[in-house]
Write a structure and sequence with these properties.
Elements (H helix, E strand, L loop, with lengths): L2 E3 L8 E3 L13 H8 L2 E7 L1 H6 L1 E6 L6 E3 L7 E6 L4 E7 L4 E2 L1 E8 L12
Antiparallel strand pairs: 1-5, 2-7, 3-6, 3-9, 4-5, 4-7, 7-8
């Protein structure tokens, strides 16, 4: 389980502007930022088809190497942490097709309005 390099079809994804209040990401502070520094999340919604079939979430960070989470999701909405740099987020259904994402909101990680959505 966890994040691994994405090696599927070409992706379009959904671009999200970085949180300029967060510290810039460096190789030496990345883990600390993930656990403590990124306070903004992007809330996404996938299609009903993706919810029924299952999908994996992923992102293309500022260095351009796409990664995907190995956990299959069945929730209609989910949250992704937003770092300092701009990023592209995506979802891939279990059959390999990209699931369209709708950016529902940007919120604070502690916002109770979106607490129901799994955080990745």
């Amino acid at each position: 389980m966890g994040w691994k390099k994405y090696e599927g079809q070409e992706l379009y994804g959904t671009p999200v502007e970085g949180d300029k209040n967060a510290s810039p990401t460096k190789w030496w502070n990345h883990l600390w930022l993930v656990l403590n520094g990124w306070k903004t999340v992007a809330v996404f919604r996938v299609s009903q088809e993706a919810t029924e079939r299952g999908y994996r979430v992923g992102y293309v960070p500022f260095d351009g190497s796409a990664v995907v989470n190995s956990v299959v999701n069945y929730h209609r909405e989910f949250r992704m942490r937003v770092g300092h740099e701009d990023c592209v987020f995506f979802a891939v259904m279990t059959d390999g097709r990209e699931a369209p994402l709708k950016l529902m909101a940007r919120a604070d990680i502690s916002d109770k309005l979106f607490a129901y959505a799994p955080l990745h």
